[in-house]
Amino acid sequence: MQTAKKTPPHAEALLIAALVVIAILVRWVGFREKTTDMSIFFSWYHQLGRAGGWRGIGAEVGNYNAPFLYLLAFTLYLPGPLILKIKAIWVIFDVVLAFFAYRIVGLRWPASRIPMAAALVVVLLPTVVLNASFWGQIDAMWAAPALGGVYYLLRGKPWWGVALCGVALAMKPQGIFIFPLLLLLVLAGRIPWRTLLAAPAAYLVLDLPAIAFGRNPIELLTIYSMDRQARNVPELSLRAPNVFALMPGGPREDTLRMLGYLFAAAVVIGVIYVLIARAVELTPERIVLAAALFSILMPFLLPGMHERYFFLADVLTVVLVMFLPRLWYVPLLVQAASLLSYQPYLFGRVVAVLPTIAALLMLAALLILAHQLLSPAFRKDPLEEELEALTRPPAARPAPLPARRA
C-alpha cells in the first residue's frame, strides 16, 4: 500500500524566503535609477537642509503635505547616498502595503496559506515594484494606510479605520479615493456618523508639527485646493488610463475639468444610492468589492490624474480575488492597463494608441466590478468551493479512502 509523501520540513519557509529575497533584489536593481521626480525630491531635501533640518518642516517646501516633509527631513540624518536612503524610506511602505493585504485576506482565510500568498503577490506586483524603487514615487505612502483603513473597517473598528483613511489623505490627495467607501458604510448604518470625525482629526494631528515650527496653517490646510492641484497637473490626463484618455483635449479644458469633478461626484453618489435603495447586504466580500470599485472609479472619472493614481486599484483588485476568486481576471486587466500607461516612463517614448487601449482595459475592469457589486446576490462558483475545501482544517476534511491492494 502506497503512503502519501510528506513535505520536507521547512520547504515552504525556504520557498517563501526565496520570494522575499527576489522582492528585495528586484528593488535593489532599480535603486540607482534617478528620474525627474527624484530630482525634485533632491531639491526639496536640500531646501530642508538649508532651513535647518527638522526646523525646515515649518517652511513652505515643495507642494506635498507636511507628513511627506517629515519623512524627507528624517533622511537628512541617515547615512549613505542620498538616492538610496530616500528610496529605502519609500520602499518601507511597500512592506506596510503587503502587511495589510495579508491581514485583510486573513479575515477571509484564517489559518491558511492564502494570506501569505496575497502578501507576496502584492509585494511582487510590477507596478508596486516599479513605483518606489525604480520611479522613486510615494504612492504606497497613501495606499498603505488606505488599505489599513479597509482592514479595520472589516474588523468592526471604525474609529481606527476612518483615522487611517484620514492618514491616507494627509499623505496625498489621492487618499480621497477610499472615502466613498466610508460614505457608503455610514449611510448603510454599518458605522456611526461620529466616527467620520476621526479622518479630519488624524489629518490635523499630522499637520500640527509643521504648524508648531511656523508653517502657515491656512496655506497648509488648503494645499489640496482645486486651484493649487490644477496648477500641479494642468492636463486633463497625464497618461492616466481614464476617460480623458478617450477624448482629445481642446480649448474648453477648464470647463471639462469642472464637469469631470461634478460627474465623478454624481456617479459615486449614484452607485451608493443604488446600493442603499436596494438594501444590499454589505458582507465583507461586498465591502472589499466596493473598495476596489471606488479605487478604479475615482481616478477613472477625475481630471488631472497621473498614470500612477490607479496604484490602490492595482493592490485592492488582488485582495479582492482572494475574496471572490471568480474575478481572477480583473487584477490582470487593471495591471495591464497600469503597465501600458507606464510605458513612456519605462521606454522613454509615447505610442499613440496605448493610452486608448489602457483606458479601455481599465473601463472593462470597472464595468465588471460595477456589475458584480450591484448584482442582487453573490453565488459561489466551483473555484470558491474548492478553495474552502482546501483551507478547511484537516479534522474537518473527509478521511482519504484506503489504497487498493494490487
Describe this structure in words.
The structure is a single chain. This protein is mainly alpha-helical and 406 residues long. The protein has one domain (61-223, 233-378). The chain has helices at residues 11-30, 36-50, 66-75, 82-108, 114-124, 126-134, 139-154, 158-171, 179-187, 198-212, 217-221, 226-232, 253-277, 284-301, 311-323, 329-341, 343-347, 354-374, 382-391, and strands at 237-238, 305-306. The protein has a two-stranded parallel sheet with strand order 1-2.
How is the secondary structure organized here?
Layout: H1 11-30, H2 36-50, H3 66-75, H4 82-108, H5 114-124, H6 126-134, H7 139-154, H8 158-171, H9 179-187, H10 198-212, H11 217-221, H12 226-232, E1 237-238, H13 253-277, H14 284-301, E2 305-306, H15 311-323, H16 329-341, H17 343-347, H18 354-374, H19 382-391
Parallel strand pairs: 1-2
Quote the average pLDDT: 88
Cα distance spanning the termini:
8 Å
Q: State the major sheet.
A: 2 strands, parallel
What general outline do the C-alpha atoms trace?
globular
The count of β-strands is 2
Order of helices and strands: HHHHHHHHHHHHEHHEHHHHH
Spans of at least 5 consecutive residues whose pLDDT stays below 50 are 396-406
Structural class: mainly alpha
Percentage of helical residues? Answer: 55-70%
Question: Going across the major beta sheet, what is the strand order?
Answer: 1-2
Radius of gyration: 23 Å
Summed up, the domain count is 1
What is the beta-strand fraction? under 5%
The tally of helices reads 19
